[in-house]
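Priority: medium. Attachment 1 of 2:
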């Protein structure tokens, strides 16, 4: 759908061309999702029920681009307590996973120094 290419950038010919050439489905869905939280009904069913074009992949992208209405997200969570609980559990799980991974990583300075040692050797 090219949602990843929705941007405020207009500083180069590339970004001006991308902005001018969004397919109608992009602008139609963005307009719809400014009033309504994305839902499964917004998408054609994908073969075998795979999630490749469904809302669970679009919500994080919309949020990351600053295009997801926080008011709509709050209303969606308030409407469905199970969804809110699942979101909280998922968030807590990801924070714990990332914290464990970060503990195993080199500090930034040590990592940079290790790169320098590899290029000198």
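Attachment 2 of 2:
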């Amino acid at each position: 759908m090219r949602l990843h290419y929705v941007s405020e950038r207009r500083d180069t010919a590339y970004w001006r061309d991308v902005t001018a050439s969004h397919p109608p489905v992009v602008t139609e869905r963005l307009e719809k999702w400014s009033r309504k939280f994305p839902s499964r009904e917004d998408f054609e069913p994908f073969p075998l029920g795979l999630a490749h074009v469904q809302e669970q992949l679009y919500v994080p992208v919309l949020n990351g681009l600053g295009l997801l209405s926080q008011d709509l997200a709050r209303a969606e969570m308030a409407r469905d307590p199970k969804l809110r609980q699942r979101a909280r559990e998922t968030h807590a799980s990801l924070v714990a996973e990332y914290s464990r991974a970060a503990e195993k990583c080199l500090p930034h300075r040590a990592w940079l120094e290790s790169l320098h040692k590899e290029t000198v050797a």
